Every structure is written in C-alpha cells, then in structure tokens.
Amino acid sequence: MLGAILDRLRHTGRSRNWKSHQALGRRGEDLAHRYLRKQGFTIVARNYRLAAGDGEADLIAWEGETLVLVEVKSRKSDEHGPPERAIDDEKRQHLKRIAREYSRKTETPWERVRFDLVTVVFSTPPRIELLRGALTP
User: Fewer C-beta neighbours within 10 Å, C or N terminus of the chain?
Assistant: First the structure.
C-alpha cells in the first residue's frame, strides 16, 4: 500500500519534468521492480548501461543461481497490441552485449543467464505479467 502511494508521488513528479512516455516507462519499471521482488528475485541493477553507452537493461536480477536481464515494456492500454511487440532485434542485441559483460563481471556461466520480459498495462489496477525466457537474443 505504501509502495503504491510512493509510486504515484514519484510518477507525479516525473510527469512534471519528463516527457509522458518516459514517465510512464519509469513507472512501469518501478512496478516491475516491486513485482519481481515479491516473486523472489533479487534486483542488483536498474537502468544498467554499458560503458560505451550503447544499450541499457531495465533491470538485472538474480533468481536463485540464474542471472536475469529484464526488459520492461509499459503501455497505457493494449488496444494497439501487446507491449512485447515493441522489442526489436536491435534491443535483443543490446541485451545480449550487456549480459555478456555482466556475466563476465560476476563470473556467471552463460548457461545460467536468462532474458525475461515484464509487461505492464496501466489498466485499473495495472496488469503486470512476467514472461520468463521470452527474449532469446
């Protein structure tokens, strides 16, 4: 309950200073972060970028011994199709590069790396869905 109130307050502040799609995307990331924690994930990074700056992982987490890179896609509604349709090959390649770097840094074998997708549709209440292994780069 308190988390939802804080989310709304953060979103209101962001909406004043950011473009609406940026504020909505960040709110979706906030909801996805909380949702994954409730599912037992340990979040270790948000908006992780490579040093070269050519890609970003919305969330990086551990689920048990598995390193999980999570892409979050948020939409006001799904009337124009599901949020996951917005993921293209370029995004998949960025995630793969980030995963390679992060797995090397943490000495995680590639076989223990997974790419998940969390979709957030801002209905009332917001609809959040976790798709494990949905993003094969």
Answer: N
Output the six-digit token pair for 74.
């948020």
Cα 31 to Cα 67: distance, rounded to the nearest angstrom: 20
Question: Which helix (H) or strand (E) is 15 found in, with range?
Answer: helix 2-17
Task: Report the 10 Å Cβ neighbour count for 49.
Answer: 13
Q: What is the pTM of this model?
A: 0.82
Please report, for residues 57, 113, 136, the alpha-carbon distance to residue 101 in angstroms, rounded to integers and kept in the order given. Answer: 12, 12, 17
Q: Quick one: tokens of 67?
A: 């390193």
d(C-alpha 55, C-alpha 101), whole Å: 12
d(C-alpha 120, C-alpha 5), whole Å: 18
Would you say 60 and 36 are in contact if contact means Cβ atoms under 8 Å apart? no
Are the CB atoms for 83 and 63 separated by under 8 Å? no
